[in-house]
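Hey Z.,

So I finally got round to the zinc ion thing we talked about over coffee. Here's the setup:
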Amino acid sequence: MRKYSVFALAREAMRGHTGWQEQWSSPEPRQEYDIIIIGAGGHGLATAYYLAKEHGLTNIAVLEKGWLGGGNTGRNTTIIRSNYLYDESAGLYDHALKLWDGLSQDINYNVMYSARGVMMLSHNVHDVQVAKRHVHANRLNGVDNEWLTPEQAKAFCPPLNISAAARYPVVGAALQRRGGTARHDAVAWGYARAASDRGVHIIQNCEVTNIRRANDGRVSGVETSHGFIGAKKIGVVAAGHSSVVMQMADVRMPLESYPLQALVSEPVKPIFPCVVMSNTVHAYISQSDKGELVIGAGTDQYISYSQTGGLHILTHTLEAICEMFPIFTRMRMLRSWGGIVDVTPDRSPILSKTPVPGLYVNCGWGTGGFKATPGSGHAFAHTIARDEPHPVNAPFTLERFRGGRLIDEAAAAAVAH
Amino acid sequence: MLLIHCPYCEEERPEIEFANAGEAHIARPSDMDGLSDQAFEEFFFIRSNPKGLHYERWRHIHGCARFFNALRDTVTDRFVATYKTGEPKPDIAAEGKDQ
Ligand SMILES: Cc1cc2nc3c(=O)[nH]c(=O)nc-3n(C[C@H](O)[C@H](O)[C@H](O)COP(=O)(O)OP(=O)(O)OC[C@H]3O[C@@H](n4cnc5c(N)ncnc54)[C@H](O)[C@@H]3O)c2cc1C
Ligand SMILES: [Zn+2]
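And the result:
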C-alpha cells in the first residue's frame, strides 16, 4: 500500500494524478478462510482490521451483500460521544472514543474526526435530573461531561433559541467536549484499505444465504451468491439484518429492526459549530464540512426492512429543529433517507459468543453504533481471536437476556444515538 | 405514512391514529412464577423480526381505541390483512395467492 501523505499528494499533483492505486483489492474468494466476517460496514471492516493488526490473523474474508459501507455506516448522522449512564456502557463507548483520537494516523486515512462537542439539551425538570445524573455518573467513570446554563449553551452554540417562550424551552444542557463527528464513508473506506493492505479479502456483492454447521455443531462455512465458502469461525456483523443472518444458524435473537431516517439541507457557509441533540423532542443536528445541516429523525413505530420511513417522522423532527433554531426555518432540505437499525430490549449492543461453537455476533447497535465503530471492531476482534471477550465487551453478552443482567440504557436515556 | 384498515371501525385510516404494539400471538404464560429463565427470555425478549410476513398488534388509539392484529410484509410495508383480536391467524399461503 502506498502511504498517503503530503508528499504523495504533491507527487501526484505533478503527474496528473495517474499514480494513485486502488484503495483495496477485489480478489476472488478462496475455498476456505480461518475467519469470515458477514457484513462490510464499519464494524465488520474494523473487526477484520484489528484481527490482522492486533492478533496477526490475515486469512480472513469480509463478505458484503451490497457495496461496502452501504448499510447504516453510510447512512448515519455521524455523532460521536461516550456519555452513557452505566459503567459498562461508559467503558465500551469510551474505549471507542479513545481510539477515534489517533485513528486517522493509525490507518493512514483521514476520517475527519472532529471533537467539536456534543451538547444535549434539557427542556423540563425531568430532563435536567436525567442529564445531571449522567454528568455525575460520567465523571465518576472518567468520562468528560459538564452542565451548562441556557446562557452558556447559547454561548457554545449561538443559533440556539433560549427564549422562555419557545415551544421547547431550553433550561440547560449537558456538554461532552470530546464528542463530535467523523466522516462516515471515510471510516468504512479507511478500514477497508488498511485491512486489505494486511491481506484481508473484501468481497462485495456476495450475499450470505446460509450458515453451514458440521456434525459436531461447529460452523463449517457459508453458502453465498458466489457458492460455498468454508470458515473455521464466523463473525456476524449485519446490523439491521442480524436476526435474519443469525436465523441461518438457528439462533433466535432479542432484536427488532426499525427504519431510522436522516436528512440534509442545501449546503451553506459555516453557521453551526457543534452537535446539538434533544432526546425529548427527538431531533439532532450538526453541520458537515460540505456545509449541509445534517439532521437525524426518529424511528418508525413498526419493524420494517424497507429502508424508507414515514414522512411524518421527518416533519416532526423539522418542526422541533425550527423551534429550537428559528434561523433555519427557510432552509431547504436536499435529501432524506432511511437505514434499518437493529434494536435490543435494553438498547445496548450484543458483542458475544453464541450457543453455536465458532459463531460470534456483533449487533444490536440500534440507532447509535457509528460512534463505537473502532472500539467495537477492536473488542470483537479480541473475542473472535481468543474465543473469549475483551474486558470492555464482556458484559455485552447474548445470555444477559436470559440471566437478567441487562445494561438498561433504554430506561436511562429513552433514546440513544 | 401507512394507511391501516381498522377491523372494528371498518375504515382505512392514517397511521398516526394508530399505535403499533409489537409482535402478535405471543401468549402471556399463566404461570409466571414457574417459568424457566429460558422460557421467560423467549416470551419477553426474543422476537421473530422476519424479513417478510409479520403478525403484529396495532391499537386504534385515536379512534375506537381497540387492539387488533395485522399481517404485514416488512419488506414492502404492505398490509396483507387486519383482523380482530381473538380471530385465528390468516393462512399465509392462501393470503399470498392473489398478490
Ligand atoms: C439515519 C441513521 C442515523 C444514525 N445516526 C447515528 C449517529 O449519529 N451516531 C451513531 O453513533 N450512530 C448512528 N446511527 C447508527 C449507526 O449507523 C449504526 O449503529 C452503525 O453504523 C452500524 O454499523 P455496522 O457496521 O454494524 O452496520 P452496517 O454499516 O449496516 O453494516 C452491515 C452490513 O452487513 C451487510 N449484510 C447484511 N446481511 C448480509 C448478508 N446476508 N450477507 C452479506 N452481507 C450482509 C449489509 O449490507 C451492511 O453493509 C444511525 C443510523 C441511521 C440509520
Ligand atoms: Zn378502530
